[in-house]
Amino acid sequence: MVWLWKDHTSYKEAAQITQLASVIRPHYLSKIGGTYSSEWWWSKILHCRNVAKDVFDAAESWVEICDWIPAVLTGELLPRNLKRSICAAGHKAIFNKSWRGLPDREFLDELSPGLGALREKLYDKAYTADHRAGMLSIKWAKGLGLSPSVAIAVGAFDAHMGAVGAGIAPGTLVKIIGTSTCDIMIHPQDETLRDIPGVCGIVDGSVIGGYYGIEAGQSGVGDIFLWFVNSLVPERYGKTQEEKFTNLQKAAAGFKPGESGLLALDWNNGNRTILVDVRLSGMLIGQTLHTQPHEIYRALLEATGFGALTIIERIEEYGVPVKEVINCGGLALKNGLMMQIYADVTGRPMKISRSEQTPALGAAVFAAVAAGSKAGGYDSVAEAQKAMVGIGREYLPVEENHRIYKKLYALYRQMHDAYGTKEWSGRMFNIMKDLLDIRDEVRRSRG
Question: Band of the pLDDT at 5, cuts 50, 70, 90?
Fold first, then answer.
């Protein structure tokens, strides 16, 4: 039985975990940004126990899919024998060597009486992705036409593999952009790294061994655009989904930043970073009787850019400099307007990975390291990256556009804090009229 990450029905359980940990195990929260998520391991397990106890009682174990696929390929399917990924364990299951693995039994029993018994059926070790999970089984070797001497590396999440396939290094932020986004950075183990409130996790070895992996992201990006096109865009933009996207993009590209007078919040699927609140929702402000669908589409693109900048600022605020940004994934390759908007919003060049399949390439990098140089592979991830990874196109920021986006971003952050934080107690009477002032300024500059 498979449970998708983006099912947020376990939000109450996630809040329960956060509340209990804040009282009796605050160190559990320190490495996951301060808030446990409904997208993660324990909240889903607890939700299953609450709503389908028969399923929970019948389950022998719980396994992340990035651990299950290597197990299938190697033929080692006994849950206790699987080589679990530190990427999955650290970012989702509150696994950390400093507290000897998974959350302790006392904490789990306090969370839900009897839940602690599950801990003994799970695991106490986790591995970086450059380790071997095993060799390709005879069954799969025959089915794939490969040799059983093929090495199978330990798994990791697609985004973390994608970061490696895009060329991640210290100071590089890799944005994996698709239905949602994951933002990944690494930081050397021998350098000080402060806890970063609101990120999805800081995990030793989750991206590359010898480095802390830092994960953040946005719960909805491509999914927001898809919802808009499928639900609200009229047929005058095209009959097919592809035609609508193409024509929206052409029309939206004819507008300058701020010209539509619109501003959106990118929370249609909640906020993953930095607010960590799945019950937040999207918003569009500034529409009039003259507002057109392509203007709304551009505002949604811009909103995801503002969300991306919010993450960059939070990471840098806590001492991790972002020296370059590399983007990968389908949207990064296909949506040039979005990439230019991101460059203009952030005031930073947006580099695009040369590979169209960076998670697969990252997996190949780890496979080559797991195989080793004697088998024709490589002895380190950095060596494999140097041989296999590269940059394609680059989008440079336009200074005039960035100047306008700085004004719009200030209004975005005002809305972000007003609707997303308990601490904000200001007023918002200015937002609609400020948007109109920016709109009029841009229109005058066009003559």
Answer: confident
pLDDT at 284 > cutoff 90: yes
1-59+86-126: CATH number: 3.30.420.40
Taken in order 193, 198, 203, 209, the sign of the CA dihedral is negative
Which tens digits make up the pLDDT trace of 316-368?
Answer: 999 999 999 999 999 999 999 999 999 999 999 999 999 999 999 999 999 99
pLDDT, residue 197, reads: 94
Q: Average per-residue pLDDT in the chain?
A: 96
Question: Are 186 and 234 in contact, with CB atoms under 8 Å apart?
Answer: no
In the chain, domain spans: 1-59+86-126, 176-191+216-355+392-447
Fill in the amino acid letter for 95. F
Q: Does pLDDT of 1 surpass 80?
A: no
CATH classification code of 176-191+216-355+392-447? 3.30.420.40
pLDDT for res 2: 84
